[in-house]
Protein: L-fuconate dehydratase
Amino acid sequence: MTVKITGYKSHDVRFPTSLTGDGTDAMNTECDYSSAYVALSTSDPNLTGYGMTFTIGRGNDIVCAAIHQLAQRLVGKDIEELFADMGKTWEYLNADPQLRWIGPEKGVVHIALGAVDNALWDLFARSRKKPLWKLVVDFTPEELVRAAAWRYISDAITKEEAIAMLKAREAGKKEREAKVRELGYPAYVTSAGWLGYTDEKVARLTKEALAAGFNHFKMKVGANVDDDLRRGKLIRSIIDDPQHVVVKHDPQSKELEGKNAGPAGSVLMIDANQVWDVQQAIDYVTKLKEIKPWFIEEPTAPDDILGHAAIRKALKPHGIGVATGEHAHNRMVFKQLLQAEAIDVCQIDSCRLAGVSEVLSVLLMAAKYGVVVCPHAGGVGLCEYVIHLSLIDYISVSGTMERNVLEYVDHLHEHFVNPCSINERGRYNVPNDPNEGYSIEMHKSSIAEDISNIFDVAVPEHSVNDRAIRSEPGPSAILDIFGAKTSRGWWLKCAYGCGMGYRRSDPRSLTETYWLGPLVVSHQKAIASLSSDPFKRRGRLMSTSTIYNHRSLQPTGPPNQGPSQPHSHARINESFENIRAEFDAILGEANAVRGQKEEIEGKAVVQQVNELNIIRQSLYDLETQHNKVRQQFEEELARMRSELMTTRQQLAAATSGAGGPPPAGPGVAAAPGAPSQIGPGGALVGGGAPYPPGSEPPYSRDYPRDRPVERDPRAADRPGLGPLGAERGLGPLSDRDRERERLERERDRERDNRERERLERDRDRAPDSRDPKRMKSDRIKSDRPDPYSPSLANIGVGPSSGGPTPKLPPPPGPGAYGGPTTSGPGEPVVPSHTGPGLHPGPGAPGAPPPLAGPSSGHPTTGPGVSAPVGGNQSFPDDLDIHNVAPEWKKEGTDWFAIFNPKTKRQLDVSLVHTLMHESVVCCVRFSADGKYLATGCNRTAQIYDTKTGQKTCVLVDDAAGKAGDLYIRSVCFSPDGKYLATGAEDKQIRIWDIAKKRIRNVFDGHQQEIYSLDFSTDGRLIVSGSGDKTARIWDMVDGTSKVLTINDHDSLNNDAGVTSVAISPSGQYVAAGSLDTVVRIWDVQTGQLVERLRGHRDSVYSVAFTPDGKGLVSGSLDKTLKFWDVSALGGGPGAVAKRNKDGKRDDKGSPCTMNFTGHKDYVLSVAVSHDGQWVVSGSKDRGVQFWDAKSAVVQCMLQGHKNSVISIDLSPAGSILATGSGDWQARIWSYNPV
Structure:
């Protein structure tokens, strides 16, 4: 039997979502979700088709009027003739010339066509007893192409191309359908990100979404950048916190690649809803890059194709994509967006486009251009629609699902007979009811079809003449709509001939419907019923399919006759206007009170913040003042001690008679072997060359007076002799002097104890989780006694300690080679042979010969050894950039550089590129030609073009497993640039073929994580350093290795893990810094240790040779750098444990010629420029400093990161600097002479 369309009904259905802020964004500040709903009836009473289009309030009735005009064209048509070619049917509906004039193919008429076409497709699917998606998926390629809309898009894709593409997807359709039925379709949630929500509500809804299994989240932006940053950070802090994540996702997986997924695999997107101009969009989103969004949706006007292309190009370096389509009028706009490469994500809208036929056209174009489709579903009924469209795209068209995500908004689903649903994985369930069609049928109670329909058109089954169609009730079909849209809600109004309806939806998802009877009802009863304040009434919760509580107010008597009817009508209108005005007034008062409350709370918060800042600044000022007073006190104390010592020496000389030695005055150099003494200001005089003016003597803060006075153990074996000091003619002290000395020592001891406690508290603080090698360094500092601290004598320096005898001495202190050092007025310290680096005086009988001191950066008092030079032009601690003259600073948006005003400015520094990463950047390294930069972070190594900043390569070892972290600690290019070596926490060295992105070699042998790598200049050898106390030299050709082990029996610390390695430019030597404060140098050919450089007071974290190979720079956790002269390596000086003909060890070695002091925290990385002019260092103080390599004077301080600067590198081929930091960024800088 032939089935024909016999009529239709359209309904204006609105919901007051603006009352709760649902749907609010930067452009649409008040959204009342609304549906222009249509039902197509047929001659089969059991077959009806339902469709709708979505609006946000006012104008919904206009769309209903347009639906009326379009649906008329279907009445009387045979449905099978329409279904046979749905593309042609769509063209027929779109072909009314008069309606096209008010389009064409856009605006009200087009979205109304969407409602009618969707209803027709729903009718088609119901007639075949299939959900819509299944109906289309079962089409042949030819049938699917025939169902699409093709006019105007053949230049982008032809029907033949589409058929070929669909046939290529035929093979796996059954498998894809089974997979999506099992897993569900991926979804993202917007419900937590509406602009009108409070932070508390955002946090609560985000946690609920995580608990529901979602890992993609979208938030609205565009009203205020500071608010957006705050909300974005709030959402990020929750979705990146593993404790809130129920369904874990691998951020390195293929489906999350390029989405800026956080450590827990969660993705954030942002939506501006067309609020910006092009440049505004670029600037605004750039400021939001900190929250790492995957894409920005609708950044500008939806028709601006070139604008979207410009925005995409500008944001691409930041890793942020562009999405749009929610307001793209038609398939032609999508065609141009795809052809112009203006979008990364295509967002179809099932209502903005004119129904399923036009959607199929866009899906086919997107598949051809390789752009993922993530449909828009923010509105009533859209989620129910678009799950069908996404299933069609995955199973039949694109064949991809995991990178596509479908929007889910948790609003108003309860109004539908077949609502969409989400499974425990945060995915859409597949619609399976054979009778649900397009899933858009609404409950009759939700549309109140008997009253709220605006148009109800029907014709007898036998009538197919359009002119015979009757539109009831004629001219009065749309009467005066007596309700009004208030600022925060809807009074829905519908009129149909002889009746009116009033409806109110409660903001708490509670709804009641009130009906007015025919117009003839007395206005007194109508007003009385409406004055009962429906806002105070409550219906049933929207958790059931029956939502509304209908109450019909029927007339109590016959209608009034005569002219009174218009009068009643006017009175009703007037009464409703009064009600509306009263409601608006109350609402205005409520908004004013809310605004006052927010203003008062804001002022209170600002006042408290200001008070805290004042307190903080006061503490800083007090600390600065305290440091200055303390420094003045110590200088005055040193001066007084010097004067006291001189006086006592003179008294001692007078007491001992003419045979005593003359006193050594200040500034008079003693003969070799004479004791060193403290001169004015704390400077050492006698026994060697003085320190350069303004430089700090090594370990100058550890005064000899800080150690308890040690007595000579040999005194007990010399009866009749007093203390050694008396033997040397200094004379006994009076009781008063002894008491004064005792009190001074107690005060000093108390001060030292307080200082030591402060240091221990600092060490006990939680380590920076982003610093490489952090666990070892913290353990080293807490376990290892500081040999230069004031408490050394108490730990085991003197014989009274009873501790074991260390075998390898640390760097010799003042007096180590030339006699005792005076520790206090008149009381020399006589060191024992058991103290490391401390030797008895030359006249002491039975004393062992002096031990050969290894190389050190500290001058000895023997002749012929020069003191290291230290630049004294460092920046003051209290430096404030705001107080620096403009010519001595340079500022960027989030960085600044300050140039040393005490020396001639020679440099200019600029930021070139910022490279965002997915985790801490542990290492950076340039290629030999400087064209590329490699970085290492968690699980991946990246390669960037240094000129453009574009990422050219990502290297990931998929075989390494997915559990836990695997940080790449070191990267290094081969000299020819073909290979990249990476060292990681899994103890393996991987050699990558960059062009093939495959592993060429794996070097395995280290027992702990690998911290450093370096290639030889010929590319044959690669050296690695590990926490297992070894460096290894690997042969790239035959794969053999040579192990360089740190097994010093005389080391001060058992943990000598290697933190940094470097091969000399000649390829002859390997230098390694280690956790035990020593820099070691080995001969590459023989594997023999040839040098130990001692002088640092804490772990050495970085070493680098100068380009000529004659110098070596080291950086340490003691906050300093040192420059070592290694030009004599291989010749007599510098050989470790080298013995002379008497069997004694030589004291010669590579000297430290310069100390670089100025960093406020650990020095983590050092580098030397290709011309040898600059030494550059990165520190935990978040700064980078440029030093003059010849004078150790700091030239520039660069602050460009928000966390520790873990790694730096200087380009071998140009004036380019790279920095890697714990703030998940690597940056490329230029430095040029001025």
